[in-house]
Design brief:
By secondary structure, the chain is mostly helical. The protein has helices at 2-16, 20-29, 34-59, 64-88, 95-109, 118-133, 137-148, 151-176, 182-204, 208-214. Helix 2 crosses helix 8 (151-176), helix 3 packs antiparallel against helix 8 and helix 7 packs antiparallel against helix 8.
């Protein structure tokens, strides 16, 4: 369980910093009460984590060797893709992602009252964060982790990682947003996925069912 907890924590904390959901929290925290934004962001990401873990548990119905090979292939694909993207980037801050977050918020605010209630702010934050995270690589990677590791550990680690990133975004995001290098974060994320792939490959031969099949 501890291994799953650490894996989920590292995956989310490194991958989510500088992500679209991070900048959504940063921008909203400058316009609304920080506590309300934090509640909305963490609630959305917690729900997304639970959904992803449940999807991972459904995947465990497949033969174990299929799950392991799919997990390795998934992490390798994400890892190499992120490394290639990172190498092609300039050493600039996350301006592109920040602009996308700003556009999403602008569209949502067009449907809100000029003085929204606390509940309206939480729901707006929840919806924006949930939609931005759906189909994101961290969601898919969480599904992969949950299919091969302890589901409770992955859930707790991922939710804590999301809460840490949300706290950073809400409390000090505006100060550090312009200093975050998308290139560095992308390379770090790629390296982390490759490390997970390597660990999965190392553990592959230690599983009796798979070892017998390969023999």
């Amino acid at each position: 369980m501890f291994e799953a907890f650490v894996a989920g924590l590292l995956l989310i904390t490194i991958s989510e910093l500088g992500d679209k959901t991070f900048f959504i929290a940063v921008i909203l925290a400058t316009r609304q009460r920080r506590s309300l934004v934090f509640i909305g962001v963490v609630s959305a990401l917690a729900v997304m984590t639970v959904i992803s873990v449940l999807m991972g548990q459904v995947a465990t119905l497949l033969p174990p060797h299929y799950i392991r090979y799919a997990e390795i292939g998934l992490f390798l694909a994400f890892g190499f893709n992120l490394l290639i993207q990172g190498c092609r980037m300039s050493n600039a801050s996350c301006d592109r992602v920040c602009e996308e977050a700003g556009e999403a918020i602008a569209q949502a605010e067009g449907h809100m009252a000029k003085q929204p209630t606390n509940l309206a702010v939480i729901l707006q934050t929840f919806g924006l964060t949930f939609l931005a995270e759906w189909g994101d690589r961290t969601q898919i990677a969480t599904i992969g982790l949950a299919a091969s590791k302890n589901a409770i550990g992955v859930t707790l680690g991922a939710v804590l990682g999301h809460a840490i990133c949300a706290a950073i975004a809400v409390v000090g995001g505006k100060l550090i947003a312009g200093r975050i290098s998308e290139k560095v974060l992308t390379l770090m994320g790629g390296a982390l996925f490759l490390i997970f792939a390597l660990l999965a490959i190392v553990n592959l031969g230690g599983e009796p069912g798979i070892a017998q099949m390969d023999a």
